[in-house]
Amino acid sequence: MPKHRELFLQAIKSDVYRDALFNRVIENFVVQGGEHDTDIAKREAAHPELGKPRLAAEFDPRAYHKVGAFGAGRDDNPEKASFLNQLYFIVGKPVSTEELDALEQKKGFAYTTEARNTYLQIGGQPRLDNDYTVFGEVYEGLSVLLEISKVRTDKSDYPLKEIHFTVEEIR
C-alpha cells in the first residue's frame, strides 16, 4: 500500500494527526480518528467544485484486519477509495472458522494460511478485508487502544469525553 503509506507520512509531516481526536469508538470493532465522515460530507457539499478527493484502494493479502491493524476510512463509494485524513485501528473480536468460511464464500476469495491463523488466534474484523485499505499495524501500545475502545460513547459512537492523539513517525 505504497500510496497510502506516503499519504500517511505526508499527513504526519503536515501535522494532520497532531492533537487530533478519536471521533468514533466501537467496542470490539474500531477506534477511528482524524477527520470525521460528517465533516468531510459537509465540506464536500459546501464546495462541490472541488469534487470528492479520495485515494484509490490498495489491497494486499499480507495486510488484513487483524487486531492492531490500521487503515484508512472511507464512505460508500463503489471504488472503495479512502478518505485522505481519516484512520482507524482495529480492536476486533474473536473470529471462528465458520465465520471465515462464510466470508470466503460471500466475498469470493480465500484467506491466506497466516491470516486465517491470526484471525483464529487473536481476532479482528475480517469482514472489512478487500473493502477497506489496511496500511499499517500497531506494534506498541495496543493495550491503550483496547482500553480506548471501551470508553462510553453517545448513540453516534462519539466518545463522551474527548480523546486526543498525535501520530509521529519513528525512524
From TrEMBL:
SUPFAM superfamilies per record: Cyclophilin-like
Gene3D superfamilies linked to this entry: Cyclophilin-like (2.40.100.10)
Superkingdom of origin: Bacteria
Key words of the record: Isomerase, Rotamase
Pfam family, any one: Pro_isomerase
Documented EC number(s): 5.2.1.8
Enzyme kind, highest EC tier: isomerase
InterPro entries with a match to the protein in the record: Cyclophilin-like_dom_sf, Cyclophilin-type_PPIase_dom, Cyclophilin_A-like
Domain PPIase cyclophilin-type positions: 1-163
Protein name, as recorded: peptidylprolyl isomerase
Species of provenance: Sphingobacterium griseoflavum
Organism lineage: Bacteria, Pseudomonadati, Bacteroidota, Sphingobacteriia, Sphingobacteriales
